[in-house]
Amino acid sequence: MQERGPIKTYGTVSADRQMEMTGLEFVRGLASGTLPLNSIAQTLGYDVTEAESGRVLVTAIPTAAVLNPAGTVHGGFTATLLDSCMGLAIQSNLEKGFCSTTLEFKVSLVRPITPETGLIRAEGTVLNCGRRIGTAEGRVIDNKGRLLAHGTTTCLVFKG
């Protein structure tokens, strides 16, 4: 896992606390470490490292803990990184008092990932964000800039 501030914390942010922030404030809090990352980030060893309006970066160093029986990184790990970066990118565009949740997503795995791949970056970018539906795309690349996977998502936007 990468360091992302003085102390890494994991857990959840209460719904009341989330409703006090814009989506961008919330996502920036995750990236800066002022808010706790969700427990799946701890379990899988990924981090939210950058956040701006409509764009979020999630990073990870794959380990043996996320391998499939063939010895490559399980597709579910890559899908989780994409779901996280794309969903948070949509969240970053939401006004105070609004939330989003994934309705559906599609992932295409284009290169195998192994622990030898090293640091991977999953970048989510908003395509469109309306009052009810948000769409985003994501790309996972390695430290040489090679595309490893890509995906799209549709999220439901709703009042918290």
Describe the structure.
The termini are far apart. Strands 1-2-4-5-6-3 form a 6-stranded antiparallel sheet. With about 160 residues, the chain is α+β, with helices and mostly antiparallel strands. The chain has helices at about 15-20, 25-30, 40-45, 75-90; strands at about 45-50, 55-60, 100-110, 120-130, 135-140, 145-160. It contains 4 helices and 6 strands. It is about 25% helix and about 35% strand. The protein has one domain (about 15-160): Hotdog Thioesterase (Thiol Ester Dehydrase, Chain A, Roll), CATH 3.10.129.
Low-confidence stretches: 1-6
The total number of structural domains is: 1
Mean pLDDT: 94
Strands, total number: 6
Structural class: alpha+beta
Write down the oligomeric state: single chain
Report the biggest beta sheet as strand number plus sense, adding barrel if it closes.
Answer: 6 strands, antiparallel
Based on CA atoms alone, the radius of gyration comes out at: 15 Å
Helix content: 10-25%
Strand content: 35-45%
Alpha-carbon distance between the two ends: 32 Å
Which CATH C-level class is it? Alpha Beta
- What are the secondary-structure elements, in order, as H or E? HHHEEHEEEE
Q: For the largest beta sheet, what order do the strands appear in spatially?
A: 1-2-4-5-6-3
Give the CATH superfamily: Hotdog Thioesterase
CATH architecture: Roll
